[in-house]
């Protein structure tokens, strides 16, 4: 009887290829009313002498059925996985989706170009707060209380305050650096600056980089050497004509503005201001001007970007026009270096 049950089970399971059918077969043999379960219930009807032997035989058949069910389930699951993988197979011969890469904004690119050049002169980039007070933005820089730059139409003052303001230049970083460390000092100060002005060549916020060297025996020759070589490296032209014009800045004496001659129309174009640090500025940060001298220069990042890359309107830098950015942006893989060329 048990042999017939087992033979019938093997025949039925051999024709099953789905989990549901296998589960139904399992219930029909091992469920509460299953064939094998009924065989266990018959044991009590047997003589005491036959119960043990018959019980052992039923258990063996049950174990074999469970083993066959487990094996069949594993086979069905394997086949289902193969079918699933076949349905999700990727055809590697198909063309891939086009990749869209981000790009570098011209301000970021030119800033990196400038810092790369200034690093050649051992100038380290230092940053500082955008919100400043009267001392760091004006007084420490020898800008008197009646200077025009202090007026409301030039400077953004905060909460009707006479002292808290948005910095108008990154010279504030130079003052903080001279307060915090002793000479020699070699640094450049990049960052945003703010002035109340808005037209095709001015915006209320723009980017500036200022340089400062404070050391013994610093003179105008050092300043000219840095400026001339910097301009030639930035514009990547050794034949560029450079002119230093006498000028006035409260924080430098002597002071000069630097022009370059356009190689297209032969007009002179202003690119930056510079000079020897005024003795009063050094005294304001407790540096003896008889022992140490300083040179300083300042330039607008956007202005240099416009001159080098033919950008005509300063306001376009901040309008987020995708068409403009696509035209003037740089590859994310274009890292400015002196050895391999600043721009590609």
From TrEMBL:
<keyword id="KW-0547">Nucleotide-binding</keyword>
<dbReference type="InterPro" id="IPR002319">
    <property type="entry name" value="Phenylalanyl-tRNA_Synthase"/>
</dbReference>
<dbReference type="GO" id="GO:0004826">
    <property type="term" value="F:phenylalanine-tRNA ligase activity"/>
</dbReference>
<keyword id="KW-0648">Protein biosynthesis</keyword>
<dbReference type="GO" id="GO:0000049">
    <property type="term" value="F:tRNA binding"/>
</dbReference>
<dbReference type="GO" id="GO:0000287">
    <property type="term" value="F:magnesium ion binding"/>
</dbReference>
<keyword id="KW-0963">Cytoplasm</keyword>
<dbReference type="InterPro" id="IPR045864">
    <property type="entry name" value="aa-tRNA-synth_II/BPL/LPL"/>
</dbReference>
<comment type="subunit">
    <text>Tetramer of two alpha and two beta subunits.</text>
</comment>
<protein>
    <recommendedName>
        <fullName>Phenylalanine--tRNA ligase alpha subunit</fullName>
        <ecNumber>6.1.1.20</ecNumber>
    </recommendedName>
</protein>
<comment type="similarity">
    <text>Belongs to the class-II aminoacyl-tRNA synthetase family. Phe-tRNA synthetase alpha subunit type 1 subfamily.</text>
</comment>
<keyword id="KW-0030">Aminoacyl-tRNA synthetase</keyword>
<dbReference type="Pfam" id="PF02912">
    <property type="entry name" value="Phe_tRNA-synt_N"/>
</dbReference>
<dbReference type="Pfam" id="PF01409">
    <property type="entry name" value="tRNA-synt_2d"/>
</dbReference>
<dbReference type="GO" id="GO:0006432">
    <property type="term" value="P:phenylalanyl-tRNA aminoacylation"/>
</dbReference>
<dbReference type="InterPro" id="IPR004188">
    <property type="entry name" value="Phe-tRNA_ligase_II_N"/>
</dbReference>
<feature type="binding site">
    <location>
        <position position="253"/>
    </location>
    <ligand>
        <name>Mg(2+)</name>
    </ligand>
</feature>
<dbReference type="GO" id="GO:0005524">
    <property type="term" value="F:ATP binding"/>
</dbReference>
<dbReference type="InterPro" id="IPR006195">
    <property type="entry name" value="aa-tRNA-synth_II"/>
</dbReference>
<keyword id="KW-0479">Metal-binding</keyword>
<feature type="domain" description="Aminoacyl-transfer RNA synthetases class-II family profile">
    <location>
        <begin position="108"/>
        <end position="307"/>
    </location>
</feature>
<keyword id="KW-0067">ATP-binding</keyword>
<dbReference type="GO" id="GO:0005737">
    <property type="term" value="C:cytoplasm"/>
</dbReference>
<keyword id="KW-0460">Magnesium</keyword>
<dbReference type="InterPro" id="IPR004529">
    <property type="entry name" value="Phe-tRNA-synth_IIc_asu"/>
</dbReference>
<dbReference type="InterPro" id="IPR010978">
    <property type="entry name" value="tRNA-bd_arm"/>
</dbReference>
<dbReference type="InterPro" id="IPR022911">
    <property type="entry name" value="Phe_tRNA_ligase_alpha1_bac"/>
</dbReference>
<keyword id="KW-0436">Ligase</keyword>
């Amino acid at each position: 009887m048990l042999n017939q049950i087992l033979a019938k089970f093997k025949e039925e399971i051999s024709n099953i290829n789905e989990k549901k059918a296998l589960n139904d077969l399992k219930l029909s043999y091992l469920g509460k009313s299953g064939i094998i379960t009924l065989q266990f219930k018959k044991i009590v009807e047997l003589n005491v002498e036959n119960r043990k032997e018959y019980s052992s035989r039923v258990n063996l058949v049950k174990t074999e059925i469970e083993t066959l069910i487990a094996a069949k389930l594993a086979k069905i699951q394997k086949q289902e996985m193969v079918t699933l993988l076949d349905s999700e197979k990727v055809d590697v011969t198909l063309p891939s989706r086009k990749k869209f890469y981000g790009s570098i904004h011209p301000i970021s690119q030119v800033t990196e170009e400038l810092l790369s050049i200034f690093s050649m002169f051992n100038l380290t980039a230092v940053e500082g707060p955008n919100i400043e007070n009267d001392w760091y933005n004006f007084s420490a820089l020898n800008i008197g209380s009646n200077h025009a730059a202090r007026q409301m139409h030039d400077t953004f003052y905060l909460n009707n305050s006479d002292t808290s303001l948005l910095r108008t230049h990154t010279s504030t970083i130079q003052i903080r650096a001279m307060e915090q460390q002793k000479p020699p000092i070699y640094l450049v100060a990049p960052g945003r600056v703010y002035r109340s002005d808005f037209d095709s060549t001015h915006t209320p916020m723009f980017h500036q980089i200022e340089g400062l060297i404070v050391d013994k025996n610093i003179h105008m020759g050092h300043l000219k050497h840095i400026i001339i070589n910097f301009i030639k490296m930035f514009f990547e032209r050794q034949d560029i004509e450079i002119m230093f014009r006498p000028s006035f800045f409260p924080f430098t004496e002597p002071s000069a503005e630097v022009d370059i001659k356009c190689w297209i129309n032969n007009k002179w174009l202003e690119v930056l201001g510079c000079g020897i640090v005024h003795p009063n500025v050094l005294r304001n940060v407790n540096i003896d001007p008889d022992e140490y001298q300083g040179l300083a220069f300042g330039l607008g990042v956007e202005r240099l970007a416009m001159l080098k890359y033919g950008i005509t309107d300063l306001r376009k830098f901040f309008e987020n026009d995708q068409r403009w950015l696509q035209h003037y942006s740089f590859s994310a893989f274009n890292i400015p270096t002196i050895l391999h060329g600043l721009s590609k």
